[in-house]
Amino acid sequence: YADQHHTTNETLPVTWVNWIMCISFGIEALTIGYNLSIGPIFMLEEFKKQTGIIGVMFAVGAGSGCAAAISVTCTSLGRKALGKIARSPFDICFAMAGIATGVFVAAVPSFPVHVCGIVLLMGFNDLGATLMTELQASITTTSNYSFIGPLGQVVRRSLNVVTALTGPVLFGVYPRLPYFVAGGITLIWSVVLFVVFKKRVKCTVEKISMATGSNRDLVSRSVSFGMSESVRATLKSTRSLAVAESTNETAGSV
Question: Which residues, including other chains, have CB under 8 Å from residue 136's CB and lie 6 or more apart?
Answer without folding.
Answer: 18, 21, 145, 148, 149, 152
